[in-house]
Amino acid sequence: MNFLITGGSGFFGGVLKRRLLAEGHAVTNIDLVPDADTHENLTSFVADIRNRRDLDRICEKKDFAAVFHCAAMLAHDKISKQDLWSSNVDGTREVAEACQRWNIERLVFISSNCLWASNLGHEVAEDEEPNPVELYGRSKLAAEQLLIGFPNLKIVVIRCPTIIDSGRLGLLAILFEFIDDGKKVWVVGDGSNRYQFIYAQDLATACIQTLDYHGSDLFHIGSDDVTSLRQVYEAVIDASGTKSRVAALPRSPVIAAMKLAHKLKLSPLGPYHYRMIAEDFIFDTRHIKERLNWRPTLTNEQMMIEAYRYYSTGRQEISARKNVSAHSKPADMGIIRLLKWFS
Q1: Could you say which DSSP state residue 86 is in?
Q2: How far is CA 168 from CA 173, 176, 221, 331, 335, in A?
């Protein structure tokens, strides 16, 4: 089959792209970032999903069975608020309208758990009211809402927690640098909070399984057997063989300091992070398991160890990366580097 992926040069878009190619499909990638991959069944365009002419130029040449809309701009990347909103919201509208114009009936949209930023005290189901607190989460919610206006398309929205696999960097690279250098890894409070991740290959499996789904739907996805962040960090440290260890910071003063650092633009961590850094958040995944017969294959610990080993093995090359997506390069530590010096 022939598929269009938006954001196929990025971290998850790249995972899905390579998975589809390995299964014998043809893939077309549209991304603002050049594609580092080459394959006889891969066609890549450096173009903007907000540009209708670019989308039409791509769609008129192919008979796409589905579009996987993975492209998104992130709040911790160095972009303007207006650019983030227009890319994530207006870009999504342009993609859906292109599907209508070119009779592509299937659209899979990758959304986020950033639609919430508080501990709801239970596993969060698809019918619970979102309440995002920062621009990225609000843009993802707005994109979901505008897709409701395309009832003639078969649209599957998959809300994801943090996607982890070999190659996932961004803010995670800060954690991995602490561990790799044998520094203390800090938790806020006692580190007993449980925060769910999703293995990128498991998410790719879910995307592929939607191709046989009968209509539109909304799914929450995530790992099973979610343990505390302290336990996850300790598992990665054990696998690293370094002298790193987990240490605790007092909750109230640290969150106050994080808020101030964000206000002064000294930290990559925003409102979502300082609200959730010591909280539980887990999706209820019964719906996707029942409807798609989907199951996760890796735990939080297993996928984080994979991601750390990728970072540790290629650290020198990773630190030199320039023209790649935000999740494919280390995030700027900002003031967090001071914490590393004292660790």
Answers
A1: I
A2: 8, 11, 18, 11, 22
Looking at residue 60, its pLDDT comes to 92
**Radius of gyration of the chain from its Cα atoms, rounded to whole angstroms:** 20
Q: pLDDT under 70 in the chain at which residues?
A: 76-77
Distance (Å, whole) CA 107 – CA 2: 13
- Measure CA of the first residue to CA of the last residue in the chain; give whole Å: 51
**Could you write out the three-class secondary structure of 116-176?**
CCCCCCCCECCCCCCCCCCHHHHHHHHHHHHHCCCCCCEEEEEEECEEECCCCCECHHHHH
Kindly state whether residue 291 falls inside one of the protein's structural domains. no
d(CA 67, CA 118): 32
230 half-sphere exposure, CB direction, 13 A CA radius: 13
In this prediction the pTM is: 0.95
Residue 122 in tokens: 């239970």
Range of the domain at 61: 2-164+196-220
* pLDDT at residue 77 in the model: 62
Rounded to whole angstroms, the Cα distance separating 123 from 194 reads 11
> For the chain, what is the domain count?
2
The answer as to whether 211 is a domain residue is: yes
Same-domain pairing of 47 and 104: yes
Q: Is residue 93 part of a domain?
A: yes
CATH number at residue 247: 3.90.25
**116's tokens:** 């919430």
**Residue type (1 letter), 28:** T
Asked if 235 and 213 sit in the same domain, the reply is no
User: What's the confidence (pLDDT) of residue 182?
Assistant: 97
User: Quick one: pLDDT at residue 76?
Assistant: 64
CATH number of the domain that residue 112 is part of: 3.40.50.720
Q: How far apart are CA 103 and CA 160, in angstroms?
A: 27
Instruction: Please tell me the distance from the alpha carbon of residue 321 to that of residue 328, in angstroms, as a whole number.
Output: 8
